[in-house]
Design brief:
alpha+beta, five-stranded antiparallel sheet, disordered N terminus, binds iron/sulfur cluster, transport, transmembrane helix, iron, transmembrane, Cytochrome c oxidase accessory protein CcoG
């Protein structure tokens, strides 16, 4: 990002400060009250940029990763199958998907209880994309003060080309984001070729345009409004916080009384604390708040104000850390406690959920069978005088290769299988197979006998056996 001047003389800096309405009190839906975020360099901003790069690269490259003859991550809605590398989740396995969402939720609760809203500040797509858009804004319109002046100026050729270039770059990023997002649902190669040659379906064009507008609107215009007014996480995160949760906090005991001074002046003689009231912590804040007013739900823990204040402290020759990642207990001088019941509780649930998920994914059956009894008659006597029950079998081959299956029945003595006992099913196909089972009535000890329909196969060199319990009527 383009860096603004780093004033050594803060009385000079005060002179170039341009008045903006107090963003924390102003109507955020009024475009006149938009926040002009000042770029800052520092430890946390660097970390946020690096994490943004990782998140962005992951998002952009994942749909291009092959896995066999398909995309590694592919949510195939038309076939109702979700492929995640070697794992294929069918509608019948949706509990696995639900478990995955629960793991993500408890992971977030655990991290939030310990580290506060670091998800929001460092990896949330809203934050990552907003900072990408701000980067383009800076490139074309200049640093914060220049942007404020540009917006106040009448239209000119200079203003026109800068605004056009900025919005064009935003639209290109939004379009790339939208096509990438859609390529998680439609194979990426096919999607890009069809999209460029104008052969894609109307549905695909609709979703790409929809997500382009959504990205452009959210990261370009809505920005902090999304975080403050629309994101449900911002609302319920307070329930996860306690006095040992890491927050971004201002050490008011050290900072107050705030006030301007030069490097050479002794603040103690002037009756001042370490805050020189330079306003930089407010100018760099993407949600436009003043952290010196205490913990506010608008704060996304991005650490930009820490970097701004640390830079100021360094220039003044003071100790860093007037604003820092801290906890309420630390600020009040109370002993910090890492292990506490809420954190342990989330950790235990998270560990159990992860272990269950690993077990369930490792033991996921590669074939599924449903046995449906004939509803028209419970049983009948056939030509040989045997008691016969009819069933419809629905067999789903959940693998990605054709498979051969053997069918049999257990639980009846000398049972006769009427219908094919050896079937082959294409990858991902469901075979509907009507079959009958007959038995000499002498062999039936009771009116209703519990039986198992068994399916066996050898899949990838491993024996597979599935049994489905049902009832045999007669006798
Ligand atoms: S107060 Fe600081 S940490 Fe919180 S959102 Fe603003 S800049 Fe980020
Ligand atoms: S807290 Fe730090 S950055 Fe904010 S006004 Fe005071 S000295 Fe400046």
């Amino acid at each position: 990002m383009t860096k603004e001047s780093n004033p050594k003389d803060f009385s000079k800096h005060q002179r170039i400060k341009i008045h903006q309405p107090d963003a924390s009190k102003a109507d955020r839906f009024n475009p006149r009250n938009r926040i002009y975020v000042r770029a800052i360099d520092g430890l946390w901003s660097k970390l946020r940029r690096q994490m943004g790069w990782v998140a962005m690269s992951f998002f952009l490259l994942l749909p291009w990763l092959p896995w066999g003859d398909r995309q590694a991550v592919w949510f195939d809605l038309s076939q109702q199958k979700f492929h995640v590398f070697g794992l294929t989740i069918w509608p019948q396995d949706l509990t696995l998907l639900a478990a995955l969402f629960m793991i993500a939720a408890f992971g977030l609760f655990f991290v939030t209880t310990y580290l506060g809203r670091v998800w929001c500040g460092y990896t949330c797509p809203q934050t990552v994309w907003t900072f990408i858009f701000i980067w383009f804004e800076e490139k074309f319109e200049g640093a914060r003060n220049k942007r404020i002046k540009l917006d106040q100026m009448p239209w000119s050729f200079d203003k026109l080309w800068r605004k056009t270039a900025k919005h064009t770059s935003w639209i290109v990023v939004s379009l790339l984001t939208a096509t990438t997002f859609v390529s998680y649902f439609v194979p990426s190669r096919e999607l890009y070729i069809d999209f460029i040659t104008l052969n894609a379906s109307g549905g695909i064009y609709f979703w790409i345009i929809f997500f382009t507008i959504a990205t452009y609107g959210n990261a370009g215009w809505m920005r902090e409004i999304m975080c403050i007014h629309m994101c449900p996480y911002a609302r319920f995160q307070a329930a996860m916080f306690d006095k040992n949760t890491y927050i971004v906090g201002y050490d008011s005991a050290r900072g107050e009384t705030r006030g301007p001074r030069t490097r050479k002046q002794d603040p103690k003689e002037m009756g001042l604390g370490d805050c020189i009231d330079c306003d930089l912590c407010v100018q760099v804040c993407p949600t436009g708040i003043d952290i010196r007013n205490g913990l506010q739900y608008e704060c996304i823990n991005c650490g930009a104000c820490i970097d701004a204040c640390d830079n100021t402290m360094e220039r003044m020759g003071y100790d860093k850390g007037l604003i820092s990642y801290t906890t309420e207990n630390k600020l009040e001088g109370v002993q910090q406690k890492v292990l506490r019941p809420k954190l342990i509780g989330y950790g235990v649930v998270l560990t159990i959920m992860v272990m269950l998920f690993i077990y369930a994914s490792a033991t996921i059956a590669p074939v599924r069978m449903d046995v449906i009894r004939d509803r028209n008659s419970l049983f009948r006597e056939n030509n040989q005088g045997n008691t016969e029950n009819t069933f419809t079998l629905k067999i789903l081959n959940k693998t990605e290769q054709p498979q051969e299956y053997e069918l049999s029945v257990e639980g009846l003595t000398n049972a006769q299988w009427i219908g094919p006992q050896h079937v082959s099913i294409e990858a991902g196909e469901v075979l509907t197979l009507p079959v009958s089972i007959a038995v000499d009535p002498i062999e039936l000890k009771r009116t209703i006998t519990k039986i198992d329909i068994k399916i066996t196969a050898e899949i990838d060199g491993n024996p597979v056996e599935i049994k489905q319990e049902t009832r045999f009527f007669g006798g």
